[in-house]
Design a protein that fits this description.
By secondary structure, the chain is an all-alpha fold. It has a domain of about 45 residues. The protein is about 70% helix and about 0% strand. The protein contains 2 helices and no strands. α1 packs antiparallel against α2. It is elongated. The termini are close together.
Length: about 80
Amino acid sequence: MPIWFAYTLIVLLIITSILLTMLILLHRGKGGGLSSMFGGGVSSSLAGSSVAEKNLDRYTVLVGIIWFACIVGLGLWLRLQLNA
């Protein structure tokens, strides 16, 4: 595989790492977390979590899956390069 593939995965890994860190920090914890600073803790439905919190969960899972795929892709690329 070409070297640009590895560089693309590394850039994507850095971007998703930063995004994942920010998304995790925005989640509401027991003490309210950083999400309450931006208005996430103001509205809550009777079901327990607001629509914004559910969307935040979805985005966090999506970015986490992309992050994991980048790690696996880099590992496979490195394995192919060492065997070649």
